[in-house]
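Extended Data, panel c. Modelled sequence:
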Amino acid sequence: MGQGRPLFRPCLGHSVGSMSERETVTFYLEPELCESAQAGKHNFIGKMAGVMERSGLEVRYAPFGARAVPEGQGWSMNHIKTPPDVRGLCFRRVYHYPFWQVERSAERWTWDVAQASFAPDPAEAGAAARFYKFWQNRLFGDAPRTTSREGFVYVPLQGKITTHRPFQLCSPLEMVEHCLDQTNGQVIATLHPNERYTRAEIAALDKLEKSHKRLIVQTGGMTDLLARCAYIVTQNSSVAFNGYFFGKPCLLFRKADFHHIAEQADLANLAAGFDAVKVLTPDYAAYVHWFWQKNSINAGRPEAEDVIAARLARFGWPVSPPTSF
């Protein structure tokens, strides 16, 4: 962005017609994403806007915190955040581009895919294997083809590591303690590079590391750790989903959307969960294909707009039916 240029221009929409003539959809976005969408430079938002405009809806863009239309009027599409009312939906990336999802809530464990049952379809085994291999290479190059199991447990941490939030079985710090209690080998816990941890959080983790010689705390190194770890223990970090591309099982201490082939921790019987994850061998290719290609919106596919239209219709939005879906 050029020197002296404002962070974002006012996002007022780009469709013809007035609010009195047409129903309005407002995209609420981060400032820079708002500017990108307004300029037509965001692929997925552009596809959603196209579906809406062809259905007679007026599309507008606004930064978070702005109120483009009076409360209770119009529809809204909110990036990552849970919508403010029943006429709004949330959209967010499903871990990697170009996969997206549209839902009522930003909480992934409430999504349709999280409630669905996964059963591998033998008829799609070939397509699933090709899909899986393509994305292994696209995301991680040769790394998934040179994996090993060196015995250590990989524990990717997220935010608020000393806080037990309602959707978690325990705090992330307590989860690390459980790993140390339930295992005999090395435990490598990693801080999220984009999280801001408080001094108290870092001090608590340092104290735990100093009292356990088997614990190593570091930042980053995901690809290398995924290639070498025995399995992953996390609340619901996307690292565990990435681990599927390396054939690495995971034990979850929190609700997640990709839970179907993971082991779920039970505080009443943690030993059972740690024993089970060691021998877990799900069909990773079938699952990734089902999760991404069958249960999300692949914005890189020619049928993406039809899938978007079907998804909006699923939530009762006034959109034209898909043309070939």
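The CA atoms of residues 226 and 243 lie 6 Å apart. This feature is highlighted in the accompanying rendering.
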